[in-house]
Specification:
With about 900 residues, the protein is of the alpha/beta class. The chain contains 29 helices and 28 strands. About 45% of the residues are buried.
């Protein structure tokens, strides 16, 4: 084989324009309009041909354009201003450093399998990636000391196209990294320092890390994406040092079968942790965004065992103190599962270094550790490794708690240790420039500085109705023009000719019609065909001459999801058969660019999943600052966001056991809302031609939803509720050679061994009158005295907590969601301890309590990381 010597050819950028590279390689341009306009002014036609990618623009722009721009005083002034603003932004302290100056030197590492940052960097597939991208952008604005890790896929996620039958087909497009906003990381770089050299200058050697997969050494090279203040490091295994299979590990996002998925997750977790260490990052906290990233915990534990001489349990105690796990999956089937043979084949050498057998490790990843037939679940390992964990909406928290019950069998649902942080969106990314300009004028600069400030959004009332309506209508008109252009191009492609060769046809859609958007992953639980259940009612809504309605649909089904693909085909078949082609349009190959056009221009965002399978959802949040209104099932974020006057709720939050019954109920509710509320309100105009009622709802939606469901609120909540406490916790355990981690590991072992002997012998209620049924009778406001004698099996009373857990009773006599009242130690006799306290009677009705004992330690989260509890046993 001939040896090929590679070299890159790039246009020469005049020294006066050298700042263009600095602007292009920081993704702040994805939300900062002033920066993006620099590239638009340089060559708007070329930028459009480059799909809005400034890095590709700088590779393709002509030398003449560059030389002309270097001599243009207006252009250079604009460039200098944008560059100065970027450098100021990068260096000035933000919210986190101001609020938590003592943690300015800390480090939080965020691991995720995908990131949706911009359409020209296709390393995302859907909601998880878009949420991760918005998390980084919001963390940048708040100046969080965060570093992110992911994978750089050579082909990314698939490009979608539909065949003549409406069936989804996929093709993968190879990425040329030299045209993406990514830079190779060179050896010696530090994670906090943004390198100034341009990629491809030939200086230095690119950083590489290796890991063991299935007994062979796999190498990954490291790339950097700068997201404002936040560095994102991406790993890529397409290297000559690797065998053919290893080279393909980072080929496609979520590509291949279980073996390929496991390899990707090992590269992300173990390789990612090693890359951070090579970059000088020593994170106190690792935020695992979904279970894919859980293997980073193995590398962190192994490193402490090698360098600090810790045992496995001690290393696990230390690293778990600084681990946060966020789950986005509402069904157990959504988690990655791996058979024991695959785990053993790929991880055996890694586990041996940790002192673990394959069987011991499998127990850590099984819901039932003793079931040899159960496969390894990455989410179960993440739950056991991360004492801090959260769901992504309040409803999702309840759903996840039910999924976690097998690990906390003796705890009531309300005490299952998982919290919720409802997702939010990076508002500045998703707000159309036209609307942002309106906010600048009427809300002031504060809306950009802190999107979560509720007082700022109250100023929406200051925007004149006419201005707000005209701005939103302009966005709808732009969306309709875009969709028409897409439809024309698609027709031209399918007929094999240019647009000029096409016969005349009526352009679809109307720029002034009520426009509904439905765009998301085509998973079956999202019920994309719900609106098409009763075609006659749908046609009556869409084809009214006086009050026309149009529907824009977009989204991809997973390549192996035949049912999701069938939903697309079925929907398009109805559209074609029923003559709805001018009212319903499907936009192929849904991506971030199309998402932005849709959320900018639609009047209504439709979301109708089958409750409770939508963990959170964020697409509906993105329409809010653009004047769009939500029409959604009470699931995910909308279950806690909805109130009358800011949008519409499909159904009443019920969950029918039969899917068909639920679909029928929800479709009836959806049609009724469209017929009786949504469409009439939109077309109800005053003498000035303005829909005053609709505009009032737009403003109320902005005021209530924009600050609450912003990425700023979300990341502040993560920082205050998780990052800062976890940083402090990890540092305490790491101090003095991890002395406290060693003590806690020993303490947990001792408590676990002693716990089977903990017993509650007797509970006394002397002095309480009996009612006619043999129960206790007290008046509201009184207390029920409780005395309990407990055998602590050799544990010290300071190591346990004795409570009377009380609540009102269910119809079957069981306790409902309640709370515990602490019983205080009163004495010690004959090897047992006497505890006393009182249960309050705050409300009338039938109530009950049960005495329980749990472990207690000031530095252990119970029951998060030690799910031990002993309840008083019935004598029956």
């Amino acid at each position: 084989m001939r040896k090929i010597h590679q070299f890159g050819v790039y246009p020469h950028i005049p020294p006066r324009l050298s700042g263009l590279e600095e602007l292009a390689y920081n993704l702040r341009w994805t939300w900062d309009t002033r920066t993006y306009k620099v590239f638009q002014h340089l060559d708007p036609e070329m930028l459009e041909r480059c799909q809005g990618n400034p890095v590709l623009l700088l590779r393709r722009v002509s030398r003449e354009k560059l030389e002309q721009a270097a001599k243009d005083a207006t252009f250079t002034s604009h460039l200098d201003g944008a560059l100065a603003e970027l450098r100021r932004y990068m260096t000035e302290p933000g919210w986190f450093r101001t609020r938590h100056p003592q943690e300015a030197d800390s480090c939080v590492a965020y691991f995720c399998m995908e990131y949706g940052l911009t359409a020209c960097l296709p390393i995302y597939s859907g909601g998880l990636g878009v949420l991760a991208g918005d998390h980084l952008k919001s963390a940048s604005g708040l100046d969080i000391p965060l570093v992110a890790v992911g994978l750089l896929y050579s082909h990314g996620y698939f490009v979608q196209y539909l065949d003549d039958s409406g069936w989804q087909r996929e093709r993968y497009r190879a990425q040329e990294f030299g045209t993406l906003p990514v830079k190779p990381v060179m050896q010696g770089e530090h994670w906090r320092t943004v390198p100034s050299q341009a990629p491809g200058d030939g200086s230095g050697t690119q950083l590489k890390v290796s890991l063991d997969i299935a007994g062979r050494e796999v190498w990954a090279q490291v790339w950097r994406v700068q997201v404002g203040r936040i560095p994102l490091f991406l790993l890529d295994t397409n290297l000559a040092e690797n065998d053919q299979a290893a080279q393909k590990i980072t080929n496609e996002l979520y590509g291949g079968g279980p073996e390929e998925r496991l390899a990707q997750e090992l590269v992300l977790g173990i390789g990612g942790a090693r890359a951070l260490r090579a970059l000088g990052a020593e994170p106190q906290v690792c935020h695992l965004n979904e279970g894919h990233a859980v293997f980073t915990s193995l590398e962190r534990m192994g490193y402490l065992m090698r360098t600090e001489g810790l045992s496995f349990l001690e290393a696990r105690q230390a690293t778990s103190a600084g681990t946060l796990f966020t789950t986005h999956t509402p069904v157990s089937a959504g988690f990655d599962l791996f058979p024991e043979a695959l785990i053993g084949h790929n991880l055996k050498p890694t586990l041996e270094h940790l002192g673990l057998t394959v069987q011991q490790f499998m127990r850590m990843g099984r819901i039932n550790p003793d079931d040899p037939h159960e496969e390894f679940n990455v989410a179960v390992l993440a739950l056991r490794q991360a004492p801090r964990r959260n769901a992504v909406s309040r409803l999702h928290r309840r759903v996840t708690a039910r999924m976690m019950l097998p690990g906390w069998t003796d705890f009531p649902l309300s005490e299952i240790p998982i919290e919720s942080v409802t997702n939010g969106v990076h508002t500045k990314t998703w707000t159309a420039p036209d609307m942002a300009q309106l906010f600048d004028h009427h809300l002031g600069p504060r809306w950009r500085e802190d999107v979560s400030d509720r007082e700022v959004w109250q100023r929406v009332d200051r925007i004149p109705d006419l201005e707000l309506w005209r701005t939103h209508s302009r966005l709808r008109e732009r969306l309709v023009a875009f969709v028409r252009e897409e439809a024309g191009a698609r027709m031209a492609d399918r007929r094999g000719g240019g647009a000029a060769s096409l016969p005349e046809f009526d352009p679809p859609l109307r720029p002034d019609a009520l426009t509904i958007g439905f765009a998301r992953r085509f998973a079956t639980y999202k019920r994309a065909t719900l609106l098409f259940r009763d075609v006659s009612r749908l046609k009556a809504v869409l084809q009214s001459e006086e009050r026309p309605v149009q529907l824009l649909v977009s989204g991809k089904a997973h390549p192996r999801d035949g049912a999701g693909k069938e939903f697309i085909r079925e929907m398009l078949d109805v559209v074609k058969r029923e003559g709805l082609s001018n009212s319903v349009m499907f936009l192929e190959d849904y991506d971030l660019a199309k998402a932005a056009m849709l959320v900018h221009g639609v009047d209504v965002w439709l979301n109708n999943p089958r409750r409770p399978y939508e963990a959170s959802g964020t697409s509906g949040m993105k329409v809010v600052p653009n004047g769009g209104l939500n029409l959604s099932v009470l699931d995910g974020w909308w279950a806690e966001a909805y109130r009358p006057g800011i949008g519409w709720a499909i159904g009443t939050g019920e969950e029918a056991g039969n899917p068909g019954t639920q679909d029928q109920f929800d479709s009836d509710s959806l049609y009724s809302l469209l017929e009786n509320e949504v469409v009439p309100l939109f077309y109800s105009r005053d003498a000035d031609g303005l829909p005053r009622g609709w505009i009032a709802m737009m403003k109320e939606s902005m005021k209530v939803l924009a600050p609450t469901f912003s990425g700023d609120r979300m990341v502040k909540q993560y920082s205050e509720g998780f990052y800062v406490p976890a940083i402090d916790h990890y540092r305490r355990l790491a101090a003095h050679g991890f002395a406290e981690a060693k003590e806690l590991a020993a303490w947990k072992t001792r408590v676990r061994e002693a716990w089977p002997g903990v017993k509650i012998f007797a509970v006394d209620e002397d002095g309480v009158a009996l009612d006619g049924r043999g129960g206790r009778e007290v008046a509201v406001g009184e207390q029920v005295p409780v005395a309990a004698r407990v055998d602590l099996a050799g544990l010290d009373p300071s190591e346990v907590m004795v409570e009377a857990f009380h609540s009102n009773l269910s119809s079957d006599g069981s306790l409902r969601t309640g709370r515990g009242v602490r019983l205080e130690l009163e004495g010690h006799q004959d090897g047992t301890y006497l505890y006393r306290g009182a249960v309050p009677a705050r409300a009338s009705g039938l109530h009950g309590y049960a005495v329980r004992v749990m472990p207690r330690h000031y530095d252990v989260l119970v029951p998060n990381e030690l799910p031990l509890v002993t309840w008083e046993e019935s004598e029956e």
